[in-house]
Design brief:
350 residues, alpha+beta, 5-stranded mixed beta sheet, extended, CRF-BP_C, signal, CRF-bd, corticotropin-releasing hormone binding
Length: 350
């Protein structure tokens, strides 16, 4: 065995260090060049599996309106009276006063989390947790829009998706093994969405609500905000609407609807023979396709028009577009009161 001197050992170690240092520098340059030549940015995920933490809200009303982002929590357990009524249901026994039946109706009532955002937003719901037993009659449903008394916003015929595609039902099937608790994600097409739930016995859920900006809103639901709203078709063949959930005073601040023959610096109220026009009216429910009409408007104007008061449960401005023109309307909406009766152009039967 050959023995190496200490000086020779130091020389070998020093050489190895220089070699390793050069290798590290070359690797670093190669990685940097690779990053500079990479034309593909990181793909943005459509949904965040773990949304940012927001304020927690407890759902206490059967019809709960949500306007803020955050976690919405609901938990239910049967009262003794409701449990007794449920036992009676299995035995088909109810007393003459129907007290047990009343308790049962309360237990199986369908409730909803009605979500509404700013006009230029859509709603995203992440089901972080849901304990809704299918076998006991429990059921949840996401609605792209709002549903109330069998009527929908946006109206069935005015939405680009079929009603079947707008409704998604789900629950937990605990008889199936293994139990799968997948997170569920939903997005609406406009600033309104609904989460319905029916829990006959017990159950709970946590729904995270977020709002995302959109550039071309079509249907807008107005809850209690008086403001200036823009309605446009952006060149598409579609019907768009603004519905206010209250009697309202409506004023057009500018309008550009229809072809050149209709844009001679004036507004027409005889537009039913045209393919592009604006309807203003009201209805007792959400369905705007069957509303009572106050006026049909088309033409061109850059100055504000007269105010008109719609005394109905829901006030709607509906823009019907053929897709041949770039239609645009700016509408001022405010709540109507008794002092606006002189401006009334439509009064619905309440």
């Amino acid at each position: 065995m050959i023995a190496l001197s200490n000086s020779y050992k130091i020389l070998i170690i020093f050489s190895l260090l220089i070699f390793l240092s050069q290798e590290i520098q070359m690797t670093s340059k190669s990685l940097k060049a690779s990053g500079e030549n990479n034309a593909w940015p990181t793909v943005k995920r459509a949904f965040d599996l773990y949304p940012e933490t927001h304020e927690m809200h407890t759902i206490t009303d059967c019809m709960h309106v949500a306007t803020e982002p955050g976690d919405y929590v609901f938990k239910k357990s049967l009262s003794s009276a409701q449990r007794f009524s449920f036992d009676k249901l299995n035995e088909n026994e109810f007393n003459e006063e129907g007290l047990e039946l009343k308790e049962l109706e309360d237990a199986i009532n369908v409730c909803g989390l009605y979500i509404i955002g700013e006009p230029n937003t859509l709603v995203e719901i992440t089901m972080k947790h849901y304990d809704v037993n299918c076998n006991s009659g429990g059921l949840m449903a996401f609605v792209d829009g709002w549903e109330l008394n069998g009527e929908y916003f946006p109206a069935i015929n005015d939405h680009h998706r079929t009603l079947e595609d707008r409704l998604v039902e789900f629950c937990n099937n605990y008889k199936r093994w293994p139990h799968v608790m997948n997170k569920k994600f939903f997005r609406s097409s406009q600033n309104a969405a609904l989460l319905q739930y029916r829990l006959p016995t017990k159950g709970s859920f946590i729904a995270n609500v977020r709002f995302h900006k959109i550039t071309q809103p079509c249907n807008i639901l107005v809850h209690d905000i008086s403001a200036l709203y823009n309605l446009a078709n952006y060149g598409f063949k579609r019907n768009c609407s603004i519905s206010a959930l209250f009697p309202a005073v409506v004023q057009l601040t500018n309008i550009k609807v229809g072809g050149k023959s209709m844009r001679k610096g004036k507004v027409s109220y005889e537009c039913m023979q045209n393919d592009d026009y604006l309807e203003i009216g009201g209805s007792p429910g959400l369905d705007s396709t069957h509303m009572e009409k106050s006026s049909d408007i088309c033409g061109y104007a850059e100055t504000p028009g007269p105010e008109q008061a719609i005394f109905c449960g829901v006030t709607t401005a509906r823009l019907v577009s053929s897709g041949r023109y770039q239609n645009h309307v700016s509408i001022m909406i405010r709540k109507a009161d008794a002092e606006d009766l002189d401006l009334a152009t439509l009064v619905c039967a309440f």
